[in-house]
Amino acid sequence: MFELVDWLRKSIPAEDSTGATSGLVHGDFRIDNLVFHPYEDRVIGILDWELSTLGNQMCDVAYSCMHYIVNVQLDKEHVSEGLETTGLPEGILSMPEFLLEYCSALGKPWPAENWKFYVAFSLFRAASIYTGVYNRWLMGNASAGERARNTGVQANELVECALGYIARENVLPAHPPSVKRDVSPSYESLVDASGRFVPNRKVLELRQRLIQRSSIKLKSGQVELIHSLRVCLWSSWFLQVDSAARARRELAAIENKHDSSGRSFDQLFGEGLTNLEYGYLCEIMGRSVWAPQVFNCGAPDTGNMEVILRYGNKEQISEWLIPLLEGIQVTEPRPFYRKIRPWKIAPLHETNRCSRAWNGANGSKALSRKTFGMFIAQHGSFVSDLAKLRVELEGTRLLVLEAADHLDKFGNKKARGILAMAKVAAPNMALKVLDTAIQVHGAAGVCSDTVLAHLWATARTLRIADGPDEVHLGTIGKLELQRASKL
């Protein structure tokens, strides 16, 4: 113990005296002291503040990471190895990934240089606490009763664990992990458990990167974008331009980079995603109003690029298409956008954008807003509507993926029937979901404080832009009659 104390005194981080890490310290921050929301995946309270003080907040961070280092249980005679050694349960972040989440959220520097100190100090605190518990057990007044018998041995083992941790050469990578571990099911498990629409590895990687970047960085700027559209309608929005560059750099990181000089004409147009592969990415981009523009997958540019690529001559492509592509690829040798195809999967984009509106906005509002003395989510009619909309939404999603698959395999002409079905089903489904979400929000649903009114107008516009339902229904009916005549 004294050896550990001497090392800690000599190794106090320089940042400790600068105030860079100063703030409110809980002192016993762990999952046992958290109160979780009964319906949502979030914390609503933190208990046990008697040890709180002002100090270095990394102490709380390190203390909450103890389960990675060591496993201590009062009913066990000895401490055991932590999750770093025994293996992480499915869905649990590694310690570097956990620290990346914290540092990214609070803008803290990567703690690799001083991490040994913070972990050793946390183990020292735990050993000191266990020593006190053991002494109280010897005097017969330990609150843990006979379970405290083992704390004396465990205190010594915690000190040894701290000294062993100090002796390790590397405890954290020098730089934060560039890609967080995918906590979703593996590709193999998807193949075993899913139906015919299973993304390949490349698409899974792109999709996970979109989830990681779009959900945080793009969502955070959505309110500013809406405001900018009111005050500077015809001006470039600085946050969109900056985030677009950062997002493309992030996404391009998973590609195999090479020198941009001497690229073939075909290489200029990206990785060559099929419509089905692109559809999985539209699901994620649809969660943000402006993500399609950031990734150069939004109207009207996509439609213009498709028309020029398919029908333009070389002079027209050089004059009009190349600037559109170069404008979005910035400095990346291989830009992130699909190889242009003759059909946009706009319905999938809109359907899943509305899925986000339903799950995020409508669901959370229903759990917080009360009518007639109870939460909206507790009304039987709401639960029934929610279930029906989920069933319809999942069916529409599969229909659009089927349309994309037919388009890839059979071309425009043979896929026109199912394309027409998707163009009828998706906008109508989106409007139905949004209408319910707006109703749950009340007056707030139709004002500019939420994105629901904008999404409703966008989905309604899609029923015009993609052609009226009557045209598509006519196509579907004629094809059905032709099919029947051949029987």
TrEMBL record:
PROSITE patterns per the UniProt record, alphabetical: PROTEIN_KINASE_TYR
One GO MF term attached to the UniProt entry: protein kinase activity
Keyword field contains Membrane: no
Cofactor: FAD
Source species, domain of life: Eukaryota
Subcellular location: Peroxisome
Keywords: FAD, Fatty acid metabolism, Flavoprotein, Lipid metabolism, Oxidoreductase, Peroxisome
Domain Acyl-CoA dehydrogenase/oxidase C-terminal residue range list: 366-478
UniProt GO cellular component terms: peroxisome
Keyword Membrane listed: no
Xref: InterPro entries: Acyl-CoA_dehydrogenase, AcylCo_DH-like_C, AcylCo_DH/oxidase_C, AcylCoA_DH/ox_N_sf, AcylCoA_DH/oxidase_NM_dom_sf, Aminoglycoside_PTrfase, Kinase-like_dom_sf, Tyr_kinase_AS
Record domain Aminoglycoside phosphotransferase: where: 4-68
Biological processes per GO annotation: fatty acid beta-oxidation using acyl-CoA dehydrogenase
UniProt xrefs under PANTHER family: ACYL-COA DEHYDROGENASE FAMILY MEMBER 11, MEDIUM-CHAIN SPECIFIC ACYL-COA DEHYDROGENASE, MITOCHONDRIAL-RELATED
Protein family per UniProt: Belongs to the acyl-CoA dehydrogenase family.
Protein name per its UniProtKB record: Acyl-CoA dehydrogenase
